[in-house]
Amino acid sequence: MNDPNTFSQVARSANRLYGPRALLVCGFTEEGQSRIVALVQSLDIPPLPILFMATPDLEIVLGALFDRPSLDGQGAPSRMPAAVIMAGITEAELHRLMEGYRQAGLPWPLWATLTPTSETWTLRALLKELAAERAALAAQSTPE
User: What is the value of pTM for the model shown?
Assistant: First the structure.
């Protein structure tokens, strides 16, 4: 779908990312979900809705998933790769979130930002693409 060599670095500006302000969180246990909620609440950013994806959400188009209330799906089974999909936050907030996540020692998920293209994909298609991109990057960094 995308060439993994087309990644672009995100600045630390007040520019907002595409889409409605929210995080879609996939593939975390109930404990992991609670840790993400605590992490986001601890950051010095305006309130950020967090939406937890359950297994049936895999076949839903991303754009429709952002219409849910905050904490929707918390505690529901999520048999999918761990992923965090960000939308509508500022570039600076993205960096704070990722730095806070790293400091919290949580398992590193697949990361993505919503785009006009990806909002038309199903959650399953995006997760598949993100996994393929991660594998391609890992293969590039492995010496032969």
Answer: 0.86
